[in-house]
């Protein structure tokens, strides 16, 4: 039986691919838990509101016990009024031949107004996941417009990369994904991301010691880092269901905690950890305790790892400078 007051969850881009893969699972309890009622607030651009209404009709037709209302709007302030969870998905996806950073001009302008609306209208406990690409820098744009909201409540999604790394390593070693712990995606959700097998473990032993180095460096890392482009090549469109799944994993763990002795990957505003410049939204190993992400401290980084992380952080710094030049933060 669903208990208590519903948690308001705002999803932008509700009429899009990811939105369609996400909303029914949120209403089924996969976001916050099987006993947490939700109220959905769907934000779309005016010309897509009718499509969002169609999705809402289907949500109604599922008669979900946990779904206690759906609001649909093109008004950003109304969309975030009283919201506790913001899933900022609405943004243009890249197409074949583009890098995610090429979307900065097209999408960057979306996230400032949404950050301000969150600042002015969201609930005090609001937590935000930015999915729209380039996700890390779009999260920085949104966060920079919400000075009254603790910075760490703004995150960007690298959980899809994290899940991809688990899947690739499991296939290589012919183990279930549940045999793998302590996986980390460092840096930017881009081709410079660094999936770290020197701290990951398979059946309790360091992963890097169980694979050959050429495979690790020349196959595993590029396969994970460029998986988004491979999906676009194969599907003719960017990832949707796997992205929605990762968004659900991210928020579910944020609210419910990460497993004891393990961690996940979250792009968070840096506090200077691991030499990542303060304020950059970069992916770190993170645990969730009492609804708060904490960066896992003290992991050893060899020279190779350090170089890879530095390269991705350099890209994030360049993106931050670019959006500053554009007046977006
Ligand atoms: N971070 C990740 O791991 C990850 C994974 C997959 C996709 N993505 C990104 O997620 C975004 C959405 O992907 P998609 O496949 O759903 O795209 P899509 O084109 O299918 O849907 C995007 C939706 O956003 C809406 N939208 C555009 N501007 C908006 C605004 N200002 N407010 C509200 N809604 C707005 C559009 O009308 C559209 O319905 C893309 O930028 C894509 O690159 C990120
Ligand atoms: O690669 C993309 O453009 C979509 C998304 O960021 C992904 O990683 O699948």
UniProtKB/TrEMBL annotation:
InterPro entries: L-lactate/malate_DH, Lactate/malate_DH_C, Lactate/malate_DH_N, Lactate_DH/Glyco_Ohase_4_C, Malate_DH_AS, Malate_DH_type2, NAD(P)-bd_dom_sf. Keywords: NAD, Oxidoreductase, Tricarboxylic acid cycle. NAD(+) binds at residues 13-19, 107, 114, 131-133. Substrate binds at residues 94, 100, 133, 164. Residues 7-148 form the Lactate/malate dehydrogenase N-terminal domain. Its EC number is 1.1.1.37. One of its GO terms (molecular function) is L-malate dehydrogenase (NAD+) activity. It catalyses: (S)-malate + NAD(+) = oxaloacetate + NADH + H(+). Residues 158-324 form the Lactate/malate dehydrogenase C-terminal domain. The active site is at residue 189. Belongs to the LDH/MDH superfamily. MDH type 2 family. NCBIfam families: MalateDH-SF1 (TIGR01759), PRK05442.1 (NF003916). Catalyzes the reversible oxidation of malate to oxaloacetate. This is Malate dehydrogenase. It comes from Sphaerisporangium aureirubrum.
């Amino acid at each position: 039986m669903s208990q208590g007051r519903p948690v308001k969850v705002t999803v932008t881009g509700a009429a899009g691919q990811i939105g369609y893969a996400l909303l029914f699972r949120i209403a089924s309890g996969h976001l916050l838990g099987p006993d947490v009622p939700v109220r959905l607030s769907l934000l779309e651009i005016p010309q897509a509101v009718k499509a969002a209404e169609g999705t809402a009709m289907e949500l109604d037709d599922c008669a979900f016990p946990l779904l206690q209302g759906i609001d649909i709007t093109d008004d950003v302030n109304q969309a975030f009024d009283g919201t506790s969870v913001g899933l900022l998905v609405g943004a243009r996806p890249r197409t074949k031949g583009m890098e995610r950073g090429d979307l900065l001009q097209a999408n960057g302008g979306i996230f400032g107004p949404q950050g301000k609306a969150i600042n002015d209208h969201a609930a005090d406990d609001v937590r935000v996941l930015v999915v729209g690409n380039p996700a890390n820098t779009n999260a920085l744009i949104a966060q920079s417009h919400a000075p009254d909201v603790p910075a760490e409540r703004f995150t960007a999604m690298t959980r899809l990369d994290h899940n991809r790394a688990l899947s690739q390593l499991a296939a290589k070693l012919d183990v279930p994904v549940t045999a793998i712990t302590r996986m980390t995606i460092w840096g930017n959700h881009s081709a410079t991301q660094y999936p770290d097998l020197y701290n990951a473990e398979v059946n309790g032993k360091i992963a890097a010691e169980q694979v050959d180095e050429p495979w690790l460096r020349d196959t595993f890392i590029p396969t994970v880092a460029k998986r988004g482009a491979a999906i676009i090549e194969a599907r003719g469109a960017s990832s949707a269901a796997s992205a929605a799944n990762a968004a659900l994993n991210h928020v579910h763990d944020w609210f419910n905690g990460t497993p004891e002795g393990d961690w996940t990957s979250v792009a968070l505003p840096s506090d200077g950890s691991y030499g990542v410049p303060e304020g950059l939204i970069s992916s770190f190993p993170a645990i969730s305790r009492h609804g708060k992400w904490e960066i896992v401290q003290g992991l050893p980084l060899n020279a190779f790892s350090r170089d890879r992380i530095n390269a991705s952080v350099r890209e994030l710094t360049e993106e931050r400078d670019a959006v500053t030049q554009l007046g977006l933060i």
